[in-house]
Specification:
The two termini are 24 Å apart. The protein folds into 2 domains: 178 residues, no CATH class; 216 residues, no CATH class. The strands form 2 sheets. Strands 1, 3, 4, 5, 6, 7, 8, 9, 10, 12 and 13 form an 11-stranded mixed sheet that branches. A two-stranded antiparallel ribbon has the order 2-11. Strand 3 and strand 4 form a beta hairpin. By secondary structure, the protein is of the alpha+beta class. 54% of the residues lie in helices and 14% in strands. The longest helix is centred in the last third of the chain and has 54 residues.
Length: 418
């Protein structure tokens, strides 16, 4: 009889023990897989979304909140800043590019951003359909927005104040969809882009005169706006924006500009590199706790496999002795026990990997926030091979002592005792 068939029959003979050992290990592997996939993809998204942005300038408050709101668009603004004061830093000799952002409204929880074409160019966005926004109340929407809201070119919609559903709706002003962006796997997929003047018009008092339609003068390439928003007279002291995204002209900007903004103005400067490092450290605490729990499960499953194999030897001593008397070598008995532990961990590992990917596939299909974050259950990493190899090694280690006991089986004593 083949050693593989023999091992398989032994496992089938104890279905409850086999199932418990496989499930214990698979749960631990599934938790590790989910954490690996979620953590790696989230870190990659955070890094990609912050790439090309050296500094965020906005209202004073929490620097991390400033970054979360204006780069990742998952928090509320710290406030607004005067356009006049923002322009002062936009024209600084150390600034290569300054991109204005005006926030405040949303549509079906998708944030509407008043900005320039340079913001789309920052993420190398391209059009899937239609055109870029050009006039006040024109919008170009991200791929997820188009897919989940079913907006298409030519559709009109009214924005709601704030991010949550149920806010005050600006029914007097309707946005019109001019274009849909290709998927960029960045924050742009979840945004509705327009010009800054559109955001201002939405929040004008009813008695104010309507703005005329303005063409956006900012080109799709790098620019140093003067002023930041083309339709406002230089030095306007009334208009406000939410923040500016700044790129440095030289490394000297990283040394001088944040200190200049924080000490010589009412504004706040936050470094995406520094704040995202803080964010990773905060996230890391929770990930480490869950990872520790997963390792505990794996260690428990290893002990369970060891106990199951060790106890089974008492029941199989006679079988092993018969095998030896029929010509099976000590090595064959040793290998069969090692193989049994390896097969248990192999099944548990494969099931755990499948469960981990399956959970993320279900989450991305059922939970909109997971889909917005771009978490994909069909992504595979090389570390998963390490998980699989480590699990097989654990199974072999758990089976070593029972295998040695099988190797030392004394035929004469066992048969004489039975």
């Amino acid at each position: 009889m083949s050693i593989f068939i023999l091992v398989w029959n032994y496992l089938k003979a104890r279905p409850l023990n086999t199932a418990i050992n496989i499930m214990l290990l698979s749960l631990g592997i599934a938790v590790i897989t989910i954490l690996l996939l979620f953590n790696r993809q989230l870190e990659q998204k955070i890094t990609d979304n912050a790439r090309g942005i050296d500094l965020v300038v906005g209202a004073k408050g929490s620097p991390l909140q400033l970054i979360l709101c204006n780069i990742f668009h998952i928090d509320f603004p710290t406030g607004n800043i005067k356009l006049k004061e923002a322009e002062r830093f936009a024209k600084h000799r150390l600034v290569k590019r300054a991109i204005p952002l005006a926030l405040g409204d949303s549509y079906q929880s998708y944030r509407i951003i008043g900005t320039s074409h340079a913001y789309a160019e920052l993420y190398k966005a391209a059009l899937a359909q239609g055109d870029w926004w050009s006039k006040t109340l024109d919008v170009t929407i991200g791929a997820n927005v188009a897919e989940l809201t079913h907006l298409k070119i030519g559709d009109t919609f009214a924005s709601a104040h704030g991010l949550a559903d149920g806010g005050h709706t600006h029914n007097d002003h309707q946005y019109i969809v001019k274009g849909v962006m290709k998927r960029t796997n960045s924050v742009l997929d979840n945004l509705i882009l327009t010009n800054v003047e559109s955001v201002w018009e939405m929040h004008e008092e009813h008695g104010e005169e309507e703005h005329e339609e303005h063409e956006t003068s900012a080109p799709a390439t790098g620019f140093i706006p003067s002023p930041l928003v083309s339709s406002v007279a230089k030095g306007d002291s009334v208009k406000e924006i939410t923040s500016m995204l700044i790129q440095y002209r030289s490394p000297m900007g990283a040394i001088q500009l944040p200190r200049l903004v924080n000490s010589q103005s009412s504004l706040q400067a936050a470094s995406p590199a520094f704040e995202t490092a803080r964010l990773f450290s905060i996230m890391g605490i929770g990930v480490d706790i869950l990872m520790g729990f997963a390792y505990v499960l794996i260690v428990i499953s290893g002990l369970s496999i060891f106990i199951a194999l060790y106890n089974s030897l008492k029941e199989r001593r006679y079988d092993l002795a018969i095998m030896r008397s029929m010509g099976a070598s000590r090595t064959k008995l040793f290998v069969s026990i090692l193989l049994e532990g390896s097969v248990l961990t192999l099944f548990g590992s494969i099931l755990g990997l499948v469960m981990g990917h399956g959970v993320l596939v279900l989450l991305s299909g059922l939970v909109e926030e997971t889909r917005k974050a771009g978490i994909d259950g069909f992504v595979f990493y090389n570390q998963e091979w390490i998980i699989l190899g480590g699990s097989l090694l654990l199974g072999m280690i758990s089976a070593v002592i029972p295998a040695i006991q099988a190797y030392r089986t004394d035929i004469s004593k066992v048969l004489a005792g039975n």
